[in-house]
Amino acid sequence: MLERFYRSLYRIRRVEEEIARVYPHDKIKSPVHLSIGQEAIAVAVCEALAADDVVYGTYRGHAMYLAKGGDLRQMIAELYGKATGCTHGQGGSMHLIDPEAGVMGASAVVGTTIANAVGHAYALKYRRSKAIVASFFGDGATEEGVFHESLNFAALKRLPIVFVCENNSYAIHTHQLRRQAQANIAERARAYGMPAERLDYDVLRLHQHVQAAVEALRAGEPGPFFFECKTYRWKEHVGPGEDFHLGYRMPQEAEPWLADDQVARLAAMIDPLRRQQMEGEVECEIEVAFAFAELSPEPKPEARSDDALRRAGTATPVSSARMVHDRKMVDRKMPRTGLRAAA
Ligand SMILES: Cc1ncc(C[n+]2csc(CCOP(=O)(O)OP(=O)(O)O)c2C)c(N)n1
Ligand SMILES: [Mg+2]
Question: What is the pLDDT of residue 181?
């Protein structure tokens, strides 16, 4: 288990470091919101999930996408705006999706995927599926109306969903204490009628808590469960650099978080030879993924207009084919067979 956790943590960290390194060369065509320093939450949660479970997240979604098994090559190609990207180069870093792996989507619009996740959980319950949903969002998202509506509905319907608030204390440059009168988010979630815990940044403990919730849901216990996970963003809100010079936060504030790095912590717990081997494998995989993105073709202009038409609801035959394909992807995660049983 330790090795799996370390591989996942190290992989996410190194992928994002590589993104930060490449970013100034302007090959990456989308803004990037890095989760360096926050990886432990995605790993702890996704390691508790099964292949059939699904996740919904945010524009700061590389960690969740990778931890759940999203395809790395398609992710990097997506950042490069290439046709081989997971949304054919049209969504960029903020809209990663890989339905085959249970990564159902992410959005640049704060809070929106919480409602998508709840809708998915409602469908799963209706279809008597054993699968569960994890919904990732930031502390800023808990100020959105959709957060409150979604929690209320999920609690009312006792849905199989785990809410995961990645509380890094900031919404862009504004500290939580300057935005929220009641800063204990777990306490607010509890008021909606669900068990809610506030957890420290410790990948193994986080995992234990989420695992217990997932097991309870699988055993048929009613959901939802809520976890407020304290964490810290090391990099600037958006982009590859640091932003302590901006003055909205002080470097001293980061020190305890840097000292508590979960990647380094687990690295020290693994056999050095085994660790070297895993790191080598991950480095190769990353190199291949960036080469794949570099060599991949740009999307054809007609593919772009086709997707634009699809969004506008005037589907062409080609875009209809894409819709059928997309629908199939969703159905694989949510089999229709249960419908009859539930009806
Ligand atoms: C509905 C909406 N309002 C405002 C924004 C602008 N915005 C982008 S990121 C962000 C901060 C969100 O903070 P948080 O949810 O804590 O996530 P974090 O960036 O810390 O991971 C805001 C306000 C947006 N994208 N969508
Ligand atoms: Mg935040």
Answer: 97
